[in-house]
Amino acid sequence: MNNTKNFLNGIQINPLSFVDEGVENCIDNLKNRFHINSIFVCTVSWLALKIGRSMSYEYDGWPDHGVSKPIDLKGGAYFRPNKAYYNQTLIKDFYTKDKLFSDADILNDIIECARKYDVKVYIELMEPFFKYDGHGSIQNVEIPNIVNCLETDLLGRISGEPSTFNKDYRNWIKAIIEDQCKSYEIDGVMWCNERCSPLDQLIQGIVPTDFSTDFENYAATKNIDVNKVKESFLKVIKIIKSSNNLTFVEFINLILYNPEILIWEKLWLENNKNLDKELYGLVKWINSDIEFGLNIWNRNHFSPLRKAQWPWDEVVDYCDWVKPITYQHQGGSIYTKEIDFWNKNIFRYDNDKILGFFNEILNFETTNWDSLIEKGLDPDNYVFNQCMETVNGVNNKIPVYMGIGVDAPSYNPIQAKCTPKIVYQSVKNSCKAGASGIIYSPNYNFMKFKNLDGSVKALKELNLL
């Protein structure tokens, strides 16, 4: 349940905003205009969505604050890494090469100023850090030998993302968290895990991973025949590609009669979840007072596969709170993309027919297919239901901080736009469903103040300010 004293009113923000607007001016405005009491600062990324200015100014226009000009960033760490923590990984030199930050310890400056305003500071980290489709990836990742950490796909090709099972990469993630928890007086860590499983990749029409040497060797210790796994994947992919359309039953039949795919899926999924668990344990070992929260991908409620794989009741054992992503105005674009994965790569049903099927099994109410991107998702249904499902799913054992979309980037000119009313309705519905706080997302540098003002109106009406 929400209450005035403990209600978290947070916002995701990147270090560039503090450079563009000034640290004190930025925090003062967040505190006094929008009553923000917690900021979530992205400290490591090579993605414009996390560290840059607006990715979609051509469609959305520029925000009414900050610098209205594109910027070419190199990415990296936006805190000062202490070399002592990186002896167990080949990733060592990754402080940003962006000249704007060359003479600063911006995270330290942010924390010092935030303390004066009684604002909590959390670091925000999202994996994948590099080459993430739709997130404004910086193409030239200036880390020597990072290629030695990359996954191998089913066909034996070096893939586009580091393997989370690679020792150097996994140790690096642990090191950047240990470093920041020990070197800075932060209040918490918000961790976001947005990796696609092998079966998920198959559904998306992507050649599945992870068939890196490290992962294959680990599979062998579990008596898994990797060659049979590969044969099953190749067989199923061939059948799917040669068929004009499969029925739902035929697809399930294919997977069940090639059980090596499910064995590989389960192994991958366990490894992926174990990373989250390890990071939670690491943070608590360093300092039990530092919070560890999970920023939960919206595909976890848009994809029936992921919804089945990531039940809410599991996470209460390895986080202090959860933040479900609900970007309502952008939601129509993401939802149609998710359904298209299934419908274009496997089923090929009528769009409105499969939309109705997805709505039924995922507990959504939407407009018809042709207007879904343009109208987005209704906060009264979408945000309320997702918050209620989460609160019930964690059984009130941990707080739920709703990730409310404010000016999440547009992917095309017809996508629904954020408005003060949408933000107002989203906050009201979150609190009605039992949220213990709000985190405005994905990036302050994209947000229009007039839209954020909708949150203030809602919180005042709810007597939370």
Note the main attributes of this structure.
two-stranded antiparallel sheet, 20 helices, 465 residues, alpha/beta
What does this structure look like?
This protein is of the alpha/beta class. It has 20 helices and twelve strands. It has helices spanning 15-21, 23-34, 48-51, 57-60, 106-116, 167-183, 198-204, 213-221, 226-242, 248-256, 260-286, 299-302, 304-309, 312-315, 328-347, 351-362, 369-375, 382-393, 420-432, 449-461; strands at 8-13, 38-42, 44-45, 76-77, 120-127, 150-152, 158-162, 188-193, 291-296, 321-326, 401-405, 437-441. The strands form three sheets. Strands 1-2-5-8-9-10-11-12 form an eight-stranded parallel beta barrel, surrounded by seven helices. Helix 6 (167-183) runs parallel beside helix 11 (260-286) and helix 18 (382-393) packs parallel to helix 19. The protein starts with 7 loop residues before the first strand and ends with a helix. The relative contact order is 0.13.
| Helix and strand composition category | alpha/beta
What is the beta-strand fraction? Answer: 5-15%
Quick one: overall form?
Answer: globular
Quaternary class: single chain
Please report the number of helical segments. Answer: 20
Radius of gyration: 22 Å
- The side-by-side strand order for the widest beta sheet comes to 1-2-5-8-9-10-11-12
The total beta strand count reads: 12
End-to-end separation in angstroms reads 16 Å
Low-confidence stretches: none
Kindly report the average pLDDT value.
Answer: 95
The profile of the biggest β sheet is: 8 strands, parallel, barrel
Approximately how much helix is present in the residues? Answer: 40-55%
